[in-house]
Design brief:
The protein is an alpha+beta fold. The chain is built from 3 helices and 10 strands, in the order βαβββαβββαβββ. A 4-stranded mixed β-sheet has the order 1-4-3-2. A hairpin with a 5-residue loop joins strand 9 and strand 10. It is globular, with a radius of gyration of 15 Å. The chain starts with a strand and ends in a 10-residue tail after the last strand.
Length: 137
């Protein structure tokens, strides 16, 4: 299990995004932080307007243009689609629109990136067999 701490601007917007939009359970809410079960990983969102103001540079070329600083999760395709449906329903802007990468290989996957309300880039990958993400092919 991974533990990750990210900076946020507000508790309310962050709670809505990670709980309602991404479907993650808040396990602890305090005046200065929220702990989430982020797809079976420990995500801590901590208030820091100064840190949350940092913007990542974009790298890559279209259509694979994405924020360098990002984190995310690899899930099976059915869960990926459920998350994507919630993203569409809440009209969340994409940092990188949904696309298929590594066509025709064991690593073939669906992927998109979105920004949370504090500007943290979150990547969601969907793949038939999640262990195939480590394939060298």
């Amino acid at each position: 299990m991974i533990h990750l701490s990210i900076p946020i601007r507000t508790i309310t917007e962050t709670l809505f995004f990670y709980s309602d939009v991404l479907g993650c359970k808040a396990t602890k809410i305090a005046p200065d932080r929220i702990d989430f079960d982020f797809f079976n990983h420990h995500l801590v969102a901590q208030l820091s307007a100064e840190e949350a103001a940092h913007e990542s540079v974009y790298i890559g070329t279209q259509p694979n243009h994405y924020p360098l600083r990002h984190f995310g999760v690899v899930v099976e395709l059915d869960q990926y689609q459920k998350i994507l449906d919630r993203i569409h329903a809440h009209q969340i802007h994409f940092a990188m629109p949904p696309q298929t990468i590594f066509h025709g290989t064991p690593r073939e996957q669906e992927v998109f990136l979105v920004f949370d309300p504090s500007g943290n880039a979150v990547e969601i990958k969907g793949i038939k067999n999640t262990n195939a993400v480590f394939s060298k092919d």
